[in-house]
Amino acid sequence: MPTPATRTAQRIMQLNPRLSNQIAAGEVVERPASVIKELLENSLDAGSTRIDIDLEAGGTKLIRVRDNGHGIHQQDLTLALSRHATSKIRETEDLEAISTLGFRGEALASLASVSRLTLTSNASADKTAGWQVTVAGQEMQARVAPAPHPQGTTVEVKDLFFNTPARRKFLRTDKTELQRIEEVLRKLSLSHLQVAIYLHHNGKLLRHFAPAQAEDDVTRRLAGVFGQTFIDNAIYLEQAFSPEQGGNGLQLRGWVGLPTFSRSQADQQYFYVNGRMIRDKLVTHAVKQAYQDVLFHGRQPVYALFLTLDPRLVDVNVHPTKHEVRFRNGRDVHNFLFTAIHRALADVRPEGASAADRSVPGPGFAGVRSDMAETASSTTWPGGTYNSVPSQQSMRFAGRPPAFGGGFVTEQMQPYGRLLEASKIFGDETDAGDIPPLGYAIAQLHGVFILAENASGLIIVDMHAAHERITYERLKRATDDAGLKMQPLLVPVSVAMSERECDMAEEHSEQLQALGFEIQRVSAESLLVRSIPAMLRKENAGELVRDVLADLAEFGTTARITQHRDELLSTMACHGSVRANRRLTIPEMNALLRDMEATERSGQCNHGRPTWTEQSLDALNKLFLRGQ
Ligand code: ADP
Ligand code: MG
């Protein structure tokens, strides 16, 4: 019927309900995993505490989701399957503050148009009550019949895409579809910890997410998603900005992986806003910036972070799949995220450095395994409340170095035998409280490593890497204190920009000046750069200004200058640091160890490599099969 390139006008006709629903389905129902996402979101919105999922053939033949939520009134059953029908919003104002996962009123109608769908529900406590609805034909005529069901809802989606072959063609093997479903479950299971979820495939129990109430359950659930090693290599953080503190009630909690526990892919980055998992450029940027300077080049951090804020401050009505959001005040959010994560990572250093030692007044973070169940003590600091969980273990956890791998240990440790003798100097009775976290130096190995003994065993420090970080942090502090000097250009540089960028430059002229730029607008589309930050005088002024303005336009803030500056300082630190093969005296080595304990981020060198590692006596005993 459709004849594209013709000059004869076709008549306009209203699409029938099934077809228009199928078009809507095109946006949200891509594969079984998207069906699961929509159905689970509905179950969660209904306050369910238990959800059972049954699948056949990777969900392509059958998806059944049963919950114990509040159910649907009998009179509303037909409406639930029609488009633009929802119980979650009523008026335009409601759209401004969405607190449920769903609100578009499209999912069930869409699903019903591309599968054989049955909806059974009971909104009462009477177990013999319950009704079932199915739809048929182009008009999607509903048929309702009694069907006993305990309070809650069951949705059955059979033969997905049976009537839309184009979509069906894009389905992959059952195994692949199943993997995607499991990924959806992992994501949802983290944001709804109290809900029990059972997944059955072809009659077999495949996954079971136990409800997490106590701290241990939370850790277990998290381990189920990321693996136990993540828990062992992550920092737990919790930070809140209350409205009285001018923070718009932003709250962040969750886990960030230690820089040494990074990945080559950005595949383990889970970010939730008010319980909804999202992908957002601003968020990714803020996190990346917080890891700047501690992450090895090209590596990706791992994190599971939960941001809570007033629903009025975030627009979730941006994309049909609701994977994207728009923050009303992106700049605040960016700042908040960056500060919180940056601080948490700054504390990655050898245990024992107490919060009081820190030179920078700030919230500080203790890395804690998952102390959500513990009562946290609250400290107020200018600009925010910081909940700390005082724990002996916490710093230790934050600063824990990567453990030796088995084979490596065997090879590397052989020449160290003699040192165990030396450990007798302290003896077992020594009061561990007197020994600093990195212990006391006992020798230098091959001019590269410092060997030290602490309360629990052997510490090995890469002296160049460690010194580099210490020097770098010092240089940064010194330049922070001195401020960024302006360097007037002998010949001002003229830069062509878009009108919008030039507007930005004018708008942000104060901020630009604070960064060391003096910029003048000379026409609608050109700027004259008169000064640039003194430290960056060797950079291309035009490019620098362009990048800075691009950041300001997108994120309302820029860290580019600090980044450039830090790159320079990092190079300077590298050259100024002790080189391999320099003999250090024992007091020099001890001084370096003490400096490390007092320096932020000293767990990694400027390039993100670890600076030290620990081998406990227990591990050494095992290595030599002692006591077995
Ligand atoms: P939305 O979730 O955007 O409101 P849906 O098409 O997913 O739209 O669902 C339509 C309506 O059906 C929901 O607003 C809700 O009232 C009801 N509903 C759907 N699934 C459930 C469920 N599992 N439990 C209770 N009510 C449900
Ligand atoms: Mg929904």
Structure notes:
It is a single chain. With 628 residues, this protein is an alpha+beta fold. The chain folds into three domains: 17-209, 2-Layer Sandwich (Heat Shock Protein 90); 215-397, 2-Layer Sandwich (Ribosomal Protein S5, domain 2), CATH 3.30.230; 439-628, formyl-coa transferase, domain 3, CATH 3.30.1540. The strands form five sheets. It has an eight-stranded mixed β-sheet with strand order 5-4-3-6-2-1-7-8, with helices on one face. Helix 1 crosses helix 4 (107-113), helix 2 (32-45) packs parallel to helix 6 and helix 14 crosses helix 19 (586-598). Residues 352-432 have low confidence and may be disordered. The structure holds adenosine-5'-diphosphate (ADP) and magnesium ion.
Give the structure's gist in a few sentences.
By secondary structure, the protein is α+β, with helices and mostly antiparallel strands. It has three domains: 17-209, Histidine kinase-like ATPase, C-terminal domain (Heat Shock Protein 90, 2-Layer Sandwich); 215-397, Ribosomal Protein S5, domain 2 (2-Layer Sandwich); 439-628, formyl-coa transferase, domain 3 (2-Layer Sandwich).
